[in-house]
Amino acid sequence: MGGSMRSVTPGGSTPGKGFDKLPGMTARSLSHSIGLLTLLLPASVWLPAAQDARQARPTPKVGEFHVLKADLHMHTVFSDGEVWPTTRVQEAWREDLDVISISDHDDYHPFEKDVSADLARPFAIASPMAQGLGILLVPGVEITKGDIHFNALFVKEFNAFRGKELQAALAEAKRQGAFSFWNHPGWRGTAQWWPPIATAYSDKLFQGIEIVNGDSYYAEAHPWIGQYNLTIISNSDIHRPSLKAEERSLTLLFVRDKSLEGVREALDSGRTAAWQQKRLIGSEALLSSLFRAYVQTPAQIQPAAGTRTAALQLRNTSALHFDLKAVEAPKWMTVSPAQAGPLSTVLLTVRLAKDAPTTRQRVTVRLEVSNALAGPAIPLVVPIEFEYIP
């Protein structure tokens, strides 16, 4: 069954666009058939085949926290996506995700003549397979009112948002105890703190912001995270089938417990970071802790006999990427930049001046992690310490 569900259509994440708007009937018809084929078989019969090998993307613990990979914004044929709900679970398993939410639109159902508009169905259909594969499935809905969209997670009544105006729908989400976040704030142009957003925030109707949606990073919205104490969210907003070659945008959740309760507690506490291909976005405290947990540094360095060159060896134990350059070091030392790719060991060349100390020294080098944003246009800087042995 796994081999028969391979997709031939490249992925995409444009909000509100389904395959009914894609050119060409062949890819559309095939993709639709692939999704509907899953309906004919119970979820329990799907077992990963050899070609469905899981792509390991390790994110080890950071202190007391498990780091879970989450995509909390995705679509199926129950709104404007191209696949059946169980396909989203299979994709998540193959791509080594820990948490997903199928968040189909409340008021946009282009396939309603062919597929039920009951928004409880995607969760019900996907749940058995998610449970069997060990993936946490968060019940969710995308509140879709004009160009302003919100995701409501941990909803209890999926269809209660239909036909409501934005504020009423968000109030309903709050009544249900949902965690809500503002989706793709700049998808129609430069993001602005629109009056409906200001009203919703003043009424405490949402708690997070999707600062990354697919390939888009909304830099102009980044300051609002600190200004309004919003939880950082990053998602794929995937509509088409997912291909292995793609690197979907994810939210990293720093949870105390690998459970839905643990996920909710992390979201409420703002312990999240955005992972967009090579880019990381989060608070300085979380990103610093993550770097220290994932990048192993040497206790000491020593130049080869008769040379003024040494190697600073760093080992990355995670699936993340770190672009490194020294921004502060002793005057008698220069350190080359390097890129620490996933699960790799890299060498930073250390060159010593003629007046380098002739006795042991405790050295601190401050490294800029250029691809990690600890604030708007503010790269993360972390100190590393080691002993210099002449």
Largest sheet: 11 strands, mixed
Approximately how much beta-strand content do the residues carry? 25-35%
CATH topology of the largest domain: TIM Barrel
What's the level 1 CATH class of the largest domain?
Answer: Alpha Beta
Mean pLDDT, to the nearest integer, reads 89
Tally of DSSP β-strands: 21
Distance between the termini: 62 Å
Low-confidence residue ranges: 1-45
Global shape:
elongated
Care to describe what's here?
Strands 1, 2, 3, 10, 11, 12, 14, 16, 18, 20 and 21 form an eleven-stranded mixed sheet that branches. Strands 4, 5, 6, 7, 8 and 9 form a six-stranded mixed sheet that branches. This protein is elongated. The chain folds into two domains: 3-277, Metal-dependent hydrolases (TIM Barrel); 294-388, Immunoglobulin-like (Sandwich). The protein is an alpha/beta fold. It is 21% helix and 30% strand. It contains eight helices and 21 strands. The protein has helices at 25-37, 85-94, 120-133, 166-175, 195-202, 223-227, 260-269, 284-294; strands at residues 66-74, 99-102, 136-137, 140-145, 148-153, 179-182, 208-213, 216-217, 231-235, 250-255, 272-276, 279-281, 295-296, 300-301, 309-316, 322-328, 333-335, 338-340, 345-352, 361-375, 378-388.
